[in-house]
Design a protein that fits this description.
With about 450 residues, the chain is of the alpha/beta class. It folds into 2 domains: about 210 residues, Spore Coat Polysaccharide Biosynthesis Protein SpsA, Chain A (Alpha-Beta Complex), CATH 3.90.550; about 190 residues, UDP N-Acetylglucosamine Acyltransferase, domain 1 (3 Solenoid). About 20% of the residues lie in helices and about 30% in strands. The chain is built from 10 helices and 35 strands. The strands form 6 sheets. Strands 13, 15, 16, 18, 19, 21, 22, 24, 26, 29 and 32 form an 11-stranded parallel sheet that branches. The protein has a 10-stranded parallel sheet with strand order 12-14-17-20-23-25-27-30-33-35, with helices on one face. It has a 7-stranded mixed sheet with strand order 5-4-1-6-10-7-11, with helices on both faces. Helix 3 packs across helix 6. The longest helix has 21 residues. It starts with a strand and ends with a helix.
C-alpha cells in the first residue's frame, strides 16, 4: 500500500437550495468559506489535496489555492465527480470528502484512514442521526460489514426504517476506486452516477468497514437552515475551546467568535460581543458588552466597550481604554490612553497616556485620499475637537473643547480653534418670547 494519501474534495455543487449566486462550498461559516474549514483539517492528515469544482468557479479555485483543482464540466453525479478527481492521482490511497461537511474533525478523519487496512477494501463514515430523513441508508451483514448503500429516493419502505446512515466520506486505494467507478451506471431515480454504488462492488472484493461518527460533525449542509445549524455547532466548539484555554465568556451563547480569533488566557468577554475575522486579544484584556471587533489587536489589560467598534487596523496598546460609542479604524491607541465617549479615530496614531475627549473626531478623508492624524503622549484633546488631517499634536499639548484643529500643535501648547463667543444681553429672553408668540398665532 503506497504511503501517499490524497484527499479528493467534491465541491462542484451549486447548492440550489441555498438560493445564492455563490457555489455551496463558498457559503460562509465562522467568517470564512465552509470549504476552508475542511481543507484546514485535511492538511493536517493527508499528503495532498485535489478539489473538484464546477465550471465558472474561479473564486472557489482562488480560495483553495495552492491545492490542485479539476473541473467537472457536466454535473453527472458524485460518482462522476469522484472519477474526475481521481484522474489527477496516479497512486496511493484516496479519502473522498464533501465540501458541505466542513465540521469534520481531524480525529474522525484519522479514524477513517486507520479503518482502511490490508483486510479492508473500503472504509466509510456513517452516523445515526436523530432524524435520518433523506440520508442514504447503510445495509450491513451479520458481521457488521457494509454490503451496499441505498439512496433514500431508491430505498424500499423497509430500508427507510434503517437508522445507520451514510455520511458520504470514504477511503480506499486509488486503483480500486478507479476500477469500481468505471463499472457503475446511472440506473437510478436521478439518472446520475452515484459514488455510493461502489460500496456493493467493494464488498464483493473484501470487507467494507464503517466508522460511525457524530451527527454534529458529519451532517451535510444543503440549505440556509442547515448552514445556521452548523454555525451554532461551530460556535459551541469555538467557545468551548476558548474557555478551556482560560478565557472567561460571561454568557457564551451570546458571543460570536471567528475561526481565526486568537485568545490568550485571562481574557474576559462580556455578553453580546461580535468578533469578526483577524482579531487577536492578549492576556488580561476585557471586551465589554455589545462591542464589535474585526481586524484588530487588543493588548494586555486594555478595556474595550461597552458599545465600542474596532475596525481593521485598530491597535489598542496595554492598559488603554475605548469606551461607549467609540470607533477606531486603522488607528493605534497608545499605552494607557483613553477614548471613553462618542468619538471616531480613523487613520490616527495616539501616544501614551493621552485622553481623547467626548465627541472628538479625526477628519481623515478628503473625498479622494485618506490622511494621518498624529497625537503625541500625555495629550489632552478637549471634548468635541475636530482634527482635520493631516495634522500633528505634540507631546503634552492640549486642545480646547470645541476646537477645529487644522494646523499642527507644538508640544506643550494649548490650541484654540473656535470662533470667539459674543453675548448679546437680553436677546435670549426676547427671542424666546417671539417664538412663543409665533407658536400661539399658529
Amino acid at each position: 500500500m503506497s504511503s501517499v494519501t490524497t484527499a479528493v474534495i467534491l465541491a462542484a455543487g451549486m447548492g440550489t437550495r441555498m438560493k445564492s449566486r455563490l457555489p455551496k462550498a463558498m457559503q460562509r461559516l465562522g467568517n470564512r468559506p465552509m470549504i476552508s474549514h475542511l481543507i484546514e483539517t485535511a492538511e493536517k492528515v493527508v499528503d495532498q489535496i485535489v478539489v473538484v469544482i464546477g465550471p465558472d468557479m474561479e473564486q472557489l479555485a482562488r480560495v483553495v489555492t495552492p491545492h490542485k483543482t479539476v473541473v467537472q464540466s457536466e454535473r453527472l453525479g458524485t460518482g462522476h465527480a469522484a472519477k474526475i478527481g481521481l484522474d489527477a492521482i496516479q497512486e496511493g490511497r484516496a479519502i473522498i470528502l464533501y465540501a458541505d461537511n466542513p465540521l469534520l474533525t481531524q480525529k474522525t478523519m484519522q479514524h477513517l484512514l486507520a479503518a482502511h487496512t490490508q483486510e479492508t477494501s473500503l472504509a466509510l463514515l456513517g452516523m445515526t442521526p436523530n432524524t435520518p430523513g433523506h440520508y442514504g441508508r447503510l445495509i450491513t451483514n451479520k458481521e457488521g460489514g457494509v454490503t451496499r448503500i441505498v439512496e433514500f429516493k431508491d430505498a424500499s419502505e423497509e430500508e427507510k426504517q434503517i437508522t445507520l446512515c451514510n455520511a458520504g466520506m470514504m477511503c480506499a486505494d486509488v486503483k480500486h476506486l478507479k476500477e469500481w467507478l468505471g463499472k457503475i451506471t446511472p440506473n437510478n431515480a436521478q439518472n446520475e452516477y452515484y459514488l455510493t454504488d461502489i460500496v456493493q462492488l467493494a464488498a464483493q472484493q473484501g470487507r467494507v468497514s464503517c466508522v460511525e461518527g457524530s451527527e454534529n460533525e458529519l451532517a451535510g449542509i444543503n440549505s440556509r437552515t442547515e448552514l445556521a445549524i452548523a454555525e451554532n455547532r461551530l460556535q459551541e466548539r469555538l467557545r468551548q475551546h476558548a474557555m478551556e484555554q482560560g478565557v472567561t465568556l460571561v454568557d457564551p451563547s451570546s458571543i460570536y467568535l471567528s475561526t481565526d480569533t486568537v485568545l490568550a488566557s485571562d481574557v474576559t468577554i462580556e455578553p453580546n460581543v461580535f468578533i469578526g475575522p483577524n482579531v487577536t486579544l492578549h492576556e488580561g484584556c476585557t471586551i465589554r458588552a455589545f462591542s464589535h471587533l474585526e481586524g484588530c489587536t487588543v493588548h494586555s489589560g486594555a478595556i474595550i466597550g461597552p458599545y465600542a467598534r474596532l475596525r481593521p487596523g485598530a491597535i489598542c496598546e496595554s492598559e488603554s481604554h475605548v469606551g461607549n460609542f467609540v470607533e477606531l479604524k486603522n488607528a493605534t491607541l497608545g499605552r494607557g490612553s483613553k477614548a471613553n465617549h462618542l468619538s471616531y479615530l480613523g487613520d490616527a496614531k495616539i501616544g501614551e497616556y493621552s485622553n481623547i475627549g467626548a465627541g472628538s473626531i479625526t477628519c481623515n478623508y478628503d473625498g479622494v485620499f485618506k490622511h494621518q492624524t498624529t497625537i503625541g503622549s500625555r495629550c489632552f484633546v478637549g471634548s468635541n475637537s475636530i482634527m482635520v488631517a493631516p495634522v500633528q499634536i505634540g507631546n503634552d499639548a492640549l486642545t480646547a473643547a470645541g476646537s477645529v484643529i487644522t494646523q499642527s500643535v507644538p508640544a506643550e501648547a494649548l490650541a484654540f480653534g473656535r470662533a470667539r463667543q459674543t453675548n448679546k444681553m437680553g436677546q435670549g429672553l426676547a427671542l424666546k418670547q417671539a417664538l412663543k408668540k409665533k407658536k400661539e398665532q399658529g
